[in-house]
């Protein structure tokens, strides 16, 4: 446990250094640690470019709503029966991907945020625009079809990317290639807890 705390502390410090954090610089971006049955995945959130989506995600983290949830879905482009195939793994709370949760949020389009669905990006699952609640996914390979103007969703509005995997990408890749039927993992990877490391973004307190 002490070793894990040192690793997390090192990641926080490292993120601050990489962000150029100093007396006159912006605060380091918040980290969220997903403690899964396959190991820890550390996410770095981007509240600067996607504040609505980041703060929404943190509400679920701080309320403990991802505890007991799981990565339940894997999509592999090579076997994805879609004209715009994707490579992602999807997670949800114990209430599932249709969890009404804390209510839907406005869609922060990549056109406006400047973020992209590149390998390691985290993003919110949704049906129509402005319907995302708690279910999220991690992109395994660059997938521009998920960006604004992409055709993965027929409405062309894309999905809301809001951060990226800082460490644990090997776990993400292992989950994606685990046995599955019709995109449903044979053994969902349980999220024991999701915890915030570092400061909560000031924008989330407004």
Would you mind describing this structure in some detail?
The protein has 206 residues and is an alpha+beta fold. Helices cover 20% and strands 27% of the residues. The chain has an eight-stranded antiparallel barrel. Strand 8 and strand 9 form a beta hairpin. It starts with a helix and ends in a 9-residue tail after the last strand. The N terminus is likely disordered.
Give the overall average pLDDT. 89
Sketch the topology as an H/E string, one letter per element.
HEEHEEHEEEHEE
Regions with pLDDT < 50 over 5+ consecutive residues? Answer: 1-7, 12-25
How would you describe the shape? Answer: globular
Signal peptide: 1-25
EC number: 5.2.1.8
Enzyme class: isomerase
Domain PPIase cyclophilin-type: 28-196
Task: Kindly list the characteristics that best describe this protein.
single chain; 206 residues; alpha+beta; eight-stranded antiparallel barrel; 20% helix; 27% strand
């Amino acid at each position: 446990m002490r070793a894990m705390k040192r690793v997390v502390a090192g990641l926080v410090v490292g993120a601050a250094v990489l962000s150029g954090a100093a007396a006159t610089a912006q605060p380091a971006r918040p980290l969220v640690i997903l403690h899964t049955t396959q190991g820890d995945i550390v996410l770095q959130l981007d509240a600067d470019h996607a504040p609505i989506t980041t703060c929404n995600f943190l509400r679920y983290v701080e309320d403990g709503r991802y505890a007991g949830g799981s990565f339940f879905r894997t999509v592999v482009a090579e076997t994805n029966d879609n004209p715009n195939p994707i490579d992602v793994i999807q997670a949800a709370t114990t209430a599932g991907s249709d969890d009404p949760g804390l209510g839907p949020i406005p869609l922060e389009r990549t056109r406006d945020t400047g973020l992209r669905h590149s390998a390691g990006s985290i993003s919110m699952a949704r049906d129509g625009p402005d319907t995302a609640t708690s279910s999220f996914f991690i992109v395994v390979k660059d997938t521009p079809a998920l960006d604004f103007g992409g055709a993965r969703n027929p409405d062309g509005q894309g999905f809301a990317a809001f951060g990226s995997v800082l460490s644990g990408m090997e776990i993400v890749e292992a989950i994606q290639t685990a046995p599955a039927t019709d995109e449903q993992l044979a053994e969902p990877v349980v999220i024991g807890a999701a915890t915030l490391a570092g400061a909560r973004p000031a924008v989330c307190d407004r």
